[in-house]
Every structure is written in C-alpha cells, then in structure tokens.
C-alpha cells in the first residue's frame, strides 16, 4: 500500500484549519487492490518489436473496436485524473482542399456534441471543477490532434460524467452548419493573431527546408480559402476518414486504480463503431537533393528574407529521410551517443560566443520532424553585419568535431550531465504529476516510440557507458552532419545584405577546423573555493505556527525559513531574497535592471567565471535563476539533498564575493539591443515591452530600455549598480523539500550565517514607492509594425497592494474570473477573437499600492472600440447585476480545485510566505487561503465591483498598426 504523502497530509491539515470538508475519494482504494497487479499482455501493444523494458505502472489495453488505451495510478496532485485523447491525424492528413480541417475539427468538437449543447462546453467542464485553458484544452499539430482534460477532485460520479462528455465529443460531434458558422470566425481570428513576421519566417522555413514534401505547405492553421469553403459535408468527410477507433488512443493517469480507469474507457468507447475500411495513412515524402548536387556537400535550396524588425539569424538543416524504427535498447544507445555529440559541439560553440566575436549564440540540434525528416539543425545569431564570418566560425567549430574525436575528458563531462538528467527522475519519481506522465505517453505515440520507467532508463544509460568512446562519438557526429540535402534560410534586417546564391556559396565554402575552443580541465571541487567567512552563530530557532515550518535567525541578521518535507524525495527548493528590488534602483539606472537579469549571474562568483561555473556544476543539480521583484531581488534554484550545501555556497558567494567579468555584460548589451526591435513585430510583442511600464505609471524602472539607452550603459556602471544591490538590504533564505535539518543549518552557518552584517537597502523618496497610472477614458495608443489586421486592447482598474489586503486580493480573483466568463461570452464570438479574452488581477504584496484588474484581448483594429465599450458594460453590469449562484459556482469550484492541487506541494507554501521573516502577518493569511478563494456571496462581488470597477477608475491602452495609430492620435488631437 502506498504511503500517504506529506504533501497530501499537509493539505489535509490546511483544510482542517479552515474547517472545509474533504471530498470523498475514488470508491476503490489502493488498499483494496494492493498486491494484485492488473492483468496485462505479455507484451503490451506499445512495446511490440521492442526490447525496452515495459513500464509496468502503465496498464495497456485494446477494445474490440480497435481503440487502444493506457491507464495508470498516480496521486500527484491528490484527487486529480488527467485524460488525454489522441487522434492520429493532423494537418499532414489533409488534402489540398482540406487545409486547416484537422484544427477546425478540434474547435468543432468543443462546440457541440452528443452530450454537450451548443456553446456550453466551457461552462459544463467548469461545473466539474476544470478551468478553461489550463485544465481543459486541445492542440493540433501536423501529425496528431490531442484533447486534454485534467479533472480535479475526481469522484466516481465526476469521472463517469467526464468520460461520457468526452466520448460524445470524439465519437458523435454535431458538425452542423451553425457550428461551422460560429467557429469559423474564431479560427480565422487565430490565423490573424498568429500572423506577422514570426509567422512569415516559420512559413518560409517550412517551404525551404521541406520543399517537395507535404510539410512545406501543411500548417495546422490552414488557409482562408479552404476554411471559408468548408461545409458540414466536407468537414464530416475528413472526420469520418480519420476519427476511427483504430486511430484513437485514450490515456488516463490519476488518483484511481488503473482497472477502474480502464473500465470507464470500456464503458464509454466500446460502443463506437465506424463502418468501412480505414483509409491508409498518407505519405509524407522524403527530402530530395537537387539533381546537380555535390554528393560530398549536397547543398540545395537557400533563401534570404528581409524582416526589418527581427534579429539577423541563419539556420541551415542537414536533412535525411525519416523512417520508423524499432525502439530497441541499441537504438536508444545510439540516441544517447547522438546527445553526447551534440552537447560537446554546443558547449564549444557557447565557449566561443562567450569569448566575444562574430556571433551571439549558436546551437546544433537533431530532431525528427513531423515524421517527415530526420534533421540536424544549425542556428546562428550573428553579431553585426558580417554574417559570413559568423557562419564560417560556427562551421569551423563543427568541422573540428567532424575531423577529430573529442577527448575522453569532454565525453566524461557530458556523461556526468546526462547522468544527473537521468538520475533526478528516479529520485523524484513519486513527485511526477499524472498530467506529465500522460503527456509523455502522448509524445511517445506521436514519434512512434516507447516509454520506460526512470530506473530502467538510468540502468540502461549506466550499462551503456563503455560504448561512449571518442571513436563512437566521432562516428555519430559525422552521421549527424551527413544527409540527403542541406538547405538554409537567412533572415536579415536590411535589403541587399545577402543573396540566395551568396548564402548557398557560404555553405559550400570549405572551412578550416577550429581547435581553439576544445574545453580542457577537470571538474572544479567546491573544497578549493574560498570560504565565505567565519561560520555564523544561530541566534534563535522558532516555530512559525504553520505546519512544521521553522524560522532560524543568525547573529548577522540573516533569517531562514526551513521546512523539511522528506516525502517529496530528491527535491529541494532554495530561494534567497535580498535588497530592495525595483524600489532600490534609481530611475536613471533603470537599463541596468535589464542587463542584470541577463548578466549578473554570468559575471561570476568568487573565483568562478562562466566557464568555471559550468565546470563546478558538472554532474550536479545546481541552479542559479535571478529575478527582480517589487521590493527584493531573488535567487532561486531547485537542487538535490546531496547538492544543497554547494547550492547555498553559490548564492552566498554571489553576495559576499561577486565577480565582475566584462564579457557577460557586453554580451548582454548586444542581446538586449538585438531583441528590442523584435518587440514591434506584433501587438503581443509591444505589450511584452510596454504594458508593465504603463501599468506602473510610466516609471522608468519598468521600461524596456532602447538600444540607445543600452549603448549608454558601461561595465563600470553595471558594477556600481549591482555592487550596491548585492551588498545591502535584509536577506531571507527559504529551504523547502527533502533535506536534513541539522545538515542544512550547518551549511547555512558556513554560508549565509558567515556573511557580514548588511546595511539597509538605499531608498530615496523618489524611488521608494511605485506610481500608478491616472484614470482616463482616452486610450494610450501604441503601434506595432506587424500585420495591418492585428491589434490588442487593454483596460485596467487600479486596486491596491500590501499584505494586509491579501484576503481581499483573493476575493478579487473571484471577481476577475466572473469578469472573464462574461467577457468570453460577450466578445469571443461577437468580435471573432480566437484566444479567449481574459481578465487578471495583480496585487503586489510588498507594496501598499500598484495592483490592478486588467482585461485584455487580441483582435482586429476595428474591434478595439467595441471591446472597450463591452468591457465597460460588463464592469457596470457587475456593479448593478450581481452574479447568479450558477455563475459563482462555475468560478468557485475551479478555484477550489486550483488551490487544493497547488497546496499539495510545499512550493505553494513557499510562495505564500515569501517575505514572512520581515512581515510575519503573511503566515496567518495562509490559514484562510481556501476560504478566501471559495467563500463569498453575490453581494460581496457586487461591493468589490462597485469599489474598483467604476468607469471613472479605469485607464486603457491600445496597440494598433503604425498607420492607424498615427491616424488615431491625430483624430484625438
């Protein structure tokens, strides 16, 4: 019998604190079936022609009608069951007249079916506790269509109802004329919203790389012409051809017995009968070299496209025919050797880029593309205009890898990295969510391969190590860069920079192998690194009153929150908050915020530069993420129990002994400048660049710096700004997960306890608080240089901030969900918006203000005024017309499930009490988290709407095409 996890018991404790009844579990318990493994075939259907050890936690079966299924018991998160229905048909299965039908069908199956009335799918699944978009979703690719549902609080009744609904969608969709009429504008809007420079590049890349194959023209979104010509008869013909039991697999992983889950599949899918013989799968073709190609260097089609707003980049692909293989151990050993070969080249390319020179980044990557090609891709981002030098330098590194075997030292380094990658899933096996396990099996089916248990993967890898010799890696490297044809695409910002012929010649030109970036030197031991200081004294250890979380205070003022959760095996999360965050940085120093997020870690620690940081982490699970928050800077990482002490050393050493290497800063400056213009290619890009700036009252610290502002920064200025930030302000450390408390405190004494006492973070009157935008009915008009039929609209109402208001911020989340539902109903079909318009609430806990409720949508420029009008009407409706009981239930049940699922992990509590060492009130708010999100009334929602959503409280922003933006501004003047 599986032990109840600490995460599950933690949740039970929390629910008891708020006196909320726990929902009944699945009727058949694990205890009832302990020791009786489900009956399985000797060789499950997934493992035919394979000697890979089957993952026996999966229960595989096949119905008499040909539908296959796989079920698995998994309790992460508790109570959830994840269902995936995979249809072996995507856009490559379409005829010329059916382009876009596979994706169109994905929409239509949600529109109306045997058990779901027209347009009610979202509400139906919300009543079962599943959120639209996160818990309920679907995706169409070139080779498959997958319907996804993560059902929280899965009871026998809700599971039965869910399988009934899903079976009706897949086996009996309505596909009426009214269905097509309702969903066609949404699909066409999705096509519009995915347009722009990025889409043009993607389409051109497919046409160039896969010329002569269906993949060159088979984007899942389809074409306007074929979609507008679709009829119920033509769409049903595609459906009947491919939606057949033998083409469908149902995958279920969740908190129930596999046999119980399999019974639901049998009950609701066994009756599905489809007459006639199945259609054979279409041919996807093979890459073909031009007739006059050089057999030793078969370079085919190359193309140059000009996109003024995108960074210059070169991608070329060595293409081979894709063939289905038997997924054997020997085949996987070959894949491991391929991975080693690519890792060695990529490490050399990164080393060359770090030195400064002709390219910012470069990478090689092998991929089996849409069962159409086995390809090795080489991607290069040049620095400056000399793209030939960048391409030549990258090819020279690859040429060395093709001419000479790697050293055993290089191989051993990458083996150590792979070992960690394979070992972590073994250590954390009990933490793997059912949704991920289900998605992994979907992916295996799509690429026609198997899945194996983590222990088997690690064992096979370890047994294979003698095969990873320099000669073997050299052979696999040569195979990766040998193919039927090589094709290339160059994106440039300027007309005349290159020609198709020049790019082709650059790929044909011979290059001399570059041996200078072969990496030498053994892994670095932490034992040889300088000490942070004298080990610190523990001043106090006190309980927080929340679960088993304790606070440790050191004599130097550092405070630590500790929660050993050994039932989360193999995972330790570490977070370090220090300094004053955005509030600490002077507005005139704002560009250094962007550079810091890119280069502060890479600038080095103690005696370790970037290369040394890589070497010291070899064979370890160490992380070093950096983020800037409103009132603190933050380091974070997920590590392992064995690596915790060294992880703490890296973080503490960054505060005590920062290094200031120049090259990472120079590289960050180049990257920031290259990326800036790309923001203007779409409305979403402009919002990514500017929304936070306007939401924070045009505070310079939240502005994305322009290339000119980046040019004015210096390496000396970088050191000045970040030295001050690293040296001042309180330090809070959080360690949650699988660790020994005594050992952790000892490690903390040598690291954070050994820091010198810190000065308060410098705050000026101008920088201490962050401004709010002024209410206005006149939108801020921003422009983009993307497609002329793309726009975005934002309307925002300021709310508040601070830890005192945390309970109210949770009630505001209920209000925003109500707003979202009404907005989707009013806007999605009325305005032809594909991606659901949504409303979100922010509440900065570290500030007394700065929060907001924001509604946004991507739409056509002509629809922007209608969106503003509709949002205003909904806001007023919420003030005058409180929600019904059903409206509240549709919102509250998914929120209840989101909170209870999140609370099954210690990471949830880590986020909730972040900053509690300086503001203990945050701990008490955890006890009310579930009631705050789930207990309310129509009157409370109406009162909050009246307080915050009044028309005179809002400000608005629109992103429109350049010419329309100029006209709009002129008209308002």
Automatic annotation (TrEMBL):
Where the record annotates domain Peptidase M16 N-terminal, the positions are 80-216
**Keyword annotations from UniProtKB, A to Z:** Hydrolase, Metalloprotease, Protease, Signal, Zinc
* Entry-linked Gene3D superfamilies: Metalloenzyme, LuxS/M16 peptidase-like
Kindly give the Pfam families that the UniProt entry links to this protein.
Answer: Peptidase_M16 (PF00675), Peptidase_M16_C (PF05193)
Task: Give the Peptidase M16 C-terminal domain ranges.
Answer: 230-417, 732-893
Endpoints of the signal sequence: 1-27
| The family this protein is said to belong to | Belongs to the peptidase M16 family.
Q: What's this protein's name?
A: Insulinase family protein
What is the organism lineage in this UniProt record? Answer: Bacteria, Pseudomonadati, Pseudomonadota, Alphaproteobacteria, Sphingomonadales
């Amino acid at each position: 019998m599986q032990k109840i996890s600490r995460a599950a018991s933690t949740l039970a404790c929390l629910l008891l604190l708020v006196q909320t009844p726990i929902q009944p579990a699945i009727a058949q318990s694990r205890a009832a079936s302990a020791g009786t493994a489900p009956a399985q075939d000797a060789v499950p259907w997934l493992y035919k022609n394979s000697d890979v050890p089957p993952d026996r936690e999966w229960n595989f079966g096949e119905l008499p009608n040909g539908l296959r299924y796989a079920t698995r018991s998994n309790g992460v998160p508790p109570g959830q069951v994840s269902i995936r229905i995979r249809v072996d048909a995507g856009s490559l299965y379409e005829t010329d007249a059916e382009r876009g039908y596979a994706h169109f069908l994905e929409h239509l199956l949600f529109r109306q079916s045997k058990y779901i009335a027209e347009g009610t799918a979202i509400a139906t699944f919300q009543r079962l506790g599943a959120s639209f978009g996160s818990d309920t979703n679907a995706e169409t690719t070139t080779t498959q269509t997958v319907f996804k549902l993560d059902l929280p609080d899965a009871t026998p009744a809700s599971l039965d109802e869910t399988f009934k609904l899903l079976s009706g969608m897949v086996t009996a969709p309505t596909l009426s004329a009214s269905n097509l009429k309702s969903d066609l504008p949404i699909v066409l809007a999705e096509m519009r919203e995915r347009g722009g420079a990025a889409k043009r590049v993607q389409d051109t890349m497919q046409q160039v790389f896969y010329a002569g194959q269906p993949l060159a023209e088979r984007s899942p979104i389809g074409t306007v012409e074929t979609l507008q010509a679709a009829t119920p008869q033509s769409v049903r013909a595609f459906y009947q051809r491919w939606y057949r039991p033998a083409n469908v697999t149902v995958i279920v992983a969740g908190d129930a017995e596999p046999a119980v889950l399999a019974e639901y599949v049998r009950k609701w899918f066994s009756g599905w009968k489809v007459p006639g013989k199945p259609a054979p799968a279409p041919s996807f073709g093979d890459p073909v070299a031009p007739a006059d190609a050089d057999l030793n260097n078969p370079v085919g089609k190359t193309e140059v496209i000009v996109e003024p707003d995108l960074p210059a980049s070169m991608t070329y692909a060595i293409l081979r025919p894709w063939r289905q293989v038997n997924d054997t151990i020997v085949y996987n050993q070959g894949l491991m050797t391929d991975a080693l070969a690519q890792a060695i080249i990529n490490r050399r390319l990164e080393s060359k880029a770090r030195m400064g020179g002709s390219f910012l980044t470069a990478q090689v990557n092998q991929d089996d593309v849409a069962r159409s090609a086995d390809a090795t891709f080489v991607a290069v981002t040049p620095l400056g205009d000399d793209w030939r030098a960048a391409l030549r330098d990258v090819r020279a590194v690859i040429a060395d890898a093709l001419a000479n075997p790697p050293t055993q030292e290089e191989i051993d380094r990458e083996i150590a990295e792979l070992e960690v990658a394979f070992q972590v899933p073994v250590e954390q096996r009990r933490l793997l969510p059912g949704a991920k396990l289900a998605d992994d099996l979907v992916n295996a089916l799509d690429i026609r391969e198997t899945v194996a248990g983590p222990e088997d993967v690690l064992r096979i890898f370890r047994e294979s190590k003698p095969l990873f010799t320099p000669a073997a890696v050299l052979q696999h490297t040569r195979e990766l860069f040998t193919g039927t044809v090589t094709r290339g695409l160059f994106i440039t910002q300027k007309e005349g920079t290159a020609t198709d012929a020049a790019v082709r010649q650059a790929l044909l030109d011979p290059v001399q192998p570059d041996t200078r970036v072969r990496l030498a030197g053994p892994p670095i031991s932490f034992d040889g690194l300088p000490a942070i200081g004298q080990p610190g004294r523990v001043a106090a250890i006190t309980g927080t009153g929340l679960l088993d979380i304790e606070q440790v205070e050191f004599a130097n003022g550092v405070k630590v929150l500790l929660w050993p959760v050994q039932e989360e095996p193999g995972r330790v999360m570490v977070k370090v908050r220090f300094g004053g965050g955005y509030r600490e940085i002077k507005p005139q120093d704002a560009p250094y915020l962007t550079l810091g997020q890119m280069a502060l870690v890479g600038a080095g620690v103690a005696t370790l530069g970037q290369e040394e940081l890589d070497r010291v982490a070899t064979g370890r699970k160490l992380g070093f993420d950096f983020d800037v928050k409103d009132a603190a800077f933050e380091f974070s990482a997920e590590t392992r129990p064995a690596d915790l002490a060294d992880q703490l050393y890296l973080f503490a050493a960054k505060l005590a002994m920062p290094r200031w290497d120049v090259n990472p800063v120079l590289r960050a400056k180049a990257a920031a400048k290259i990326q800036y213009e790309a923001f203007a290619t779409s409305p979403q890009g402009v919002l990514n660049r500017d929304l936070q700036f306007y939401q924070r009252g045009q505070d310079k610290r939240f502005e994305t710096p322009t290339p000119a502002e980046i040019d004015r920064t210096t390496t000396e200025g970088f050191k000045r700004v970040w030295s001050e930030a690293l040296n001042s302000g309180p330090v809070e450390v959080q360690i949650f997960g699988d660790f020994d408390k005594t050992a952790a405190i000892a490690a903390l004494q040598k690291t954070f306890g050994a820091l010198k006492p810190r000065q308060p973070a410098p705050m000026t009157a101008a920088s201490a608080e962050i401004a709010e935008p002024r209410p206005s009915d006149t939108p801020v008009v921003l422009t983009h240089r993307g497609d002329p039929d793309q726009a975005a609209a934002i309307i925002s109402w300021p709310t508040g901030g601070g830890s005192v208001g945390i309970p109210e911020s949770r009630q505001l989340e209920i209000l925003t969900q109500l707003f979202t539902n009404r907005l989707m109903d009013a806007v999605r079909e009325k305005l032809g918006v594909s991606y659901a318009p949504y409303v979100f609430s922010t509440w900065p806990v570290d500030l007394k203000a700065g929060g907001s409720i924001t509604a946004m949508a991507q739409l056509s420029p002509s629809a922007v005024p209608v969106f503003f009008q509709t949002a205003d009407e909904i806001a007023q409706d919420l003030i005058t017309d409180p929600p019904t009981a059903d409206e509240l239930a549709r919102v509250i049940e998914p929120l209840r499930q989101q909170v209870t699922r999140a609370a099954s992990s210690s990471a949830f509590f880590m986020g909730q009490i972040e900053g509690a060492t300086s503001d203990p009130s945050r701990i008490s708010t955890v006890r009310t988290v579930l009631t705050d999100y789930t207990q309310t009334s129509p009157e409370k929602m109406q009162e909050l709407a009246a307080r915050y959503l009044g028309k005179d409280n809002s400000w608005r922003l629109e992103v429109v095409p350049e010419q329309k933006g100029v006209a709009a501004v002129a008209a308002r003047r």
